[in-house]
Design brief:
alpha/beta, five-stranded mixed β-sheet, 162 residues, globular, Cytidine Deaminase, domain 2
Length: 162
């Protein structure tokens, strides 16, 4: 399978999040060309800060492999990792990350900073960004547009009743 094939699987995970009203971000972790873990954002459902897709998929992979070290794995995620997730990626020793959409507000794989390739850390990560970028970005853009519309409608209804 190719990077695009695995990103399609991450997009399928993101769509699961979308169906739950979660920010639609999905992730899969691959070892020896096999998906060993998959996850999607659950921050609203679980009300925990660390319930990002990357954090959840790393936890699942740790259980699957039986180690905190995820060497020889590739992480596929639909949005560029944030600082928290980038830190977990470095700490788990994942050697390669492939992401879809860039995140100009919180991206730490090149957009704001690049924690994944900072040579001050004892581990650096190979990064490939922009894989199925349009599909990943459109999913997020549509989600946030609909969320804003719902808020506007709620506010309009409140004002109308007053």
């Amino acid at each position: 399978m190719t990077d695009k094939d695995f990103m399609e699987l991450a997009l399928a995970e993101a769509n699961k999040a979308n169906q739950l009203g979660e920010v639609p971000i999905g992730a899969v972790l691959v070892y020896e060309d096999k998906v060993i873990a998959q996850a999607f954002n659950l921050r609203e459902s679980l009300q925990t800060t660390a319930s990002h897709a990357e954090m959840l998929v790393i936890d699942k992979a740790n259980e699957q492999i039986g180690s905190w070290r995820l060497e020889e794995c590739t992480l596929y995620v639909t949005l560029e990792p944030c600082p928290m997730c980038a830190g977990a990626i470095v700490q788990s020793r994942i050697p390669r990350v492939v992401f879809g959409a860039y995140d100009p507000k919180a991206g730490c794989a090149g957009s704001i900073m690049n924690l994944l390739q900072d040579d001050r850390f004892n581990h650096q990560v190979e990064v490939a960004g922009g894989v199925l970028e349009e599909a990943c970005g459109t999913l997020l853009t549509t989600f946030f547009r609909q969320l804003r519309q719902k808020k506007t409608q709620l506010n309009s209804n409140k004002n109308y009743k007053n």
